[in-house]
Amino acid sequence: MVNTGHGRPAAGAMYAGLGLTVAATIAPYLDRATTHLLADHIRAGYPTYTDARVDSAVTTYLVLLTVVGALGVLAWLGTIWAVRTGKRWARPAATALFVLGTGVALTALLTKDTSGETGLPPALGWAGTAPCLAALLAVMLLWRRPRPE
């Protein structure tokens, strides 16, 4: 076991990231029930789509974003466990998962579809990047040099 002395603050940042991941996963469902940003975004990009086709596209996005969110939750839980139990591989694993998660979030935020617009409306795309900020903080805390006593 390796104890870097940074496990507790890093775990706190990781719990925040876990909460942000859950919120980002729930956000598209709240949107579907209230503001319809995703449906309106799809409709604006594809004006010839019928309501059924727009609804199908929204459902596809919900499934995709739910899978990504569930994988994110599992990654957070596994990394929190590794840090709290002092596993030697916790810091490199947290760093790798940060890079992977940030790549996925930026892909969702920036990738344009065939309409020329981003696949997700900006509000949902930016919501998906929020957990990356907590992950960056956690990784910085994990790799921080201990203070001399």
Description of the molecule:
The chain has 5 helices and no strands. The relative contact order is 0.20. It is mostly helical and 149 residues long. The model has no long low-confidence stretch (mean pLDDT 93). The longest helix has 34 residues, at 51-84. Helix 1 (7-33) runs antiparallel to helix 3, helix 3 packs antiparallel against helix 4 (90-110) and helix 4 packs antiparallel against helix 5.
Task: Give the tags.
single chain, 149 residues, mainly alpha
Which helices and strands occur, and which strands form pairs?
Layout lengths: L6 H27 L3 H9 L5 H34 L5 H21 L11 H22 L6
Helix pairs in contact: 1-3, 1-5, 2-3, 3-4, 4-5
User: Regions with pLDDT < 50 over 5+ consecutive residues?
Assistant: none
Instruction: Give the helices and strands as they follow along the chain.
Output: HHHHH
Structural class designation: mainly alpha
Mean pLDDT: 93
Main sheet attributes: strand count, strand direction, barrel closure = none
Distance between the termini: 21 Å
Portion in strands? under 5%
Secondary structure: number of strands: 0
Radius of gyration, in Å, reads 18 Å
Number of helices: 5
Shape: elongated
Percent in helix: over 70%
